[in-house]
Each structure stands twice: as structure tokens, then as C-alpha cells.
Amino acid sequence: HSGQLEDAYELLNKSLQININLFGDSNHLICKNLIGIAHYHSLSGQFQESSILLEQVLKIYKETFGEGHPEVAVALTHLGNLYFELSQYKISMSYFSDAKKIIENFINIRR
């Protein structure tokens, strides 16, 4: 599966570069690429790199949509999952808790 993972990584990077060229490096449309690349790094044991990319996603989503948007909760959940994988449960739970608050507030606003 190593070859397939490397191929996927190359395609994600190519897609990211295309999207950056089209939309800029702080546009929310690049975030799915960044999440995919972060996942690759996580699978490869490169957790620091994964964390950096997921923090970038969080920053872009906050700047684009605002602190209380569900996409921010998605980014927080990805970070929570990463820290859970690292057995850093307090940090993980903090991200999950923040994501939960956003979703609960969003649901209450919609009612």
C-alpha cells in the first residue's frame, strides 16, 4: 500500500498547487487538500507536519467563516483525532469539546 499512499500524496500536492494558483493560499477551497495531506503525514508518522497543516486549516476556516461555523468544528475534530492518535488525551478532548460547543450553538441557532 506504500506505493498507493505515495501516489495519493503526489496527487494531493498537485491538486493543492492548482487550487492555490486558482484561489490563493488562504482560501477555504484549499482546505480539503490540506486535510488530505495532513492525513498522509499522520499515517506516515509525521505528526508535527500534520499538526501544522491542520492548524492552517483551522486558521483559514476561522478567518473565512468565523469562529462559530461548522467548518471550524470539522477542523477542530481533525486536530482532536490527531492528538488522540498521539495519546495526548487532554489536548484531544479540548479540541473535541470546542467542536461540540460550536455544533451545539449552530444547532440552537437553526431552531
Secondary structure elements and their pairing?
Elements: H1 2-23, H2 31-43, H3 47-65, H4 70-85, H5 89-110
- The backbone outline, from C-alpha atoms, is flat
Give average pLDDT, whole number.
95
Low-confidence stretches: none
Q: State the distance separating the first and last CA atoms.
A: 46 Å
Query: What is the H-and-E element order?
Result: HHHHH
Counting DSSP H or I runs of 4 or more residues, the number of helices is 5
Helix content: over 70%
Radius of gyration: 15 Å
**Major sheet: size, sense and barrel closure?**
none
Got a strand count? 0
Look at the helices and sheets and give the structural class. Answer: mainly alpha
Summarize the structure.
83% of the residues lie in helices and 0% in strands.
Care to describe what's here?
By secondary structure, the protein is an all-alpha fold. It is 83% helix and 0% strand. It has 5 helices and no strands. The protein starts with a helix and ends with a helix. The model has no long low-confidence stretch (mean pLDDT 95).
List keywords for this structure.
single chain, flat, 5 helices, 83% helix, 111 residues, mainly alpha
